[in-house]
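Title: Prediction job returns without error message
Component: structure pipeline
Severity: low
Priority: P3
Assignee: unassigned

Description:
Job completed but the reporter wants confirmation the result is attached to the right record. Sequence as submitted:
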Amino acid sequence: MRVLSLFDGISCGQVAFERAGIHIDSYYASEINKYAISITQKNYPKTIQIGDVTTVNGLKDIDILIGGSPCQGFSFAGKQLNFIDPRSRLFFDYVRVLEEVKPKYFLFENVKMKKEYADIITKHLGVEPIEINSALVSAQNRKRLYWSNIQGITQPKDKGILLQDIIHENTDYADWRELSRYIVPFDKTLQILDKEVQRGKIGYFGKDSRANRVYYIHGKAVTLCGEAGGGAAKMGQYFFGCITPDRVNKRQNGQRFNEGNKFYALTAQDQHGVLIEGYIRKITPIECERLQTLPDNYTEGVSNTQRYKMLGNGWTVDVIAHILKMLK
């Protein structure tokens, strides 16, 4: 197939085609982030980089157009600016290219959003979206909408993957000297909020801000710290294990915590980390790659800050591969 990928990022699309068993003759990638481009070219040196999406034109004989325009103006987690946000307006460049190139197939991805916004996208693309949660194929809760004229798209089979299945301590030999770089001091100012537990949030450190919140996953206390960081996209902390010995009994007697069992959606701004039986550490770039079902060390070669950012902006590969398999 001849593929045109807009907003290509780190080329999760190419990994998905490969995983779906579909041969690519030519892959054209529209991307402007130099770090993302370097990762793409490291993994797929034959990628044809064509620059800014606003200047893409003149391509012919494209079999499939794929892409997901920046979502900040649509996201429930964002400011809900809709198409007023210049990043959201880039969607119309996808529409323009779709109309000019006239590929046989197309796939457009974006966040779950207000119906009025989704309806505008549906009107321009001419198909209704299907919502798929990455939780079915990964250890990450990540609800996304997919618009495509590929026929027969269904929900992926639930693989039952949990955070405990992808962390270093359980999946490979832990290089403790390496992991020690991600360990952070334990902060005893943790405040438990019983009423929030059913929604996955169990408390916070110091003050209740995104950077200080504690989240729970699969019988363990997990801290997901979200911090804007000026776009630095640093990952933060998880708690994985018991906070204090007395919490063990409280949890066992009456199920103090619910049985939440999925990682929270990676974003370009959130921070994430892990506590393994008594220590707190940030989640590593490799673990974030696993959450997006990418190969280990796929994003190696740039700073961790850039790795976290591009992984937060990327696709969950196995969801895209599941959709592409419908082409075979």
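Comment from assignee: result matches the submitted record. The first helix runs from residue 12 to 20.
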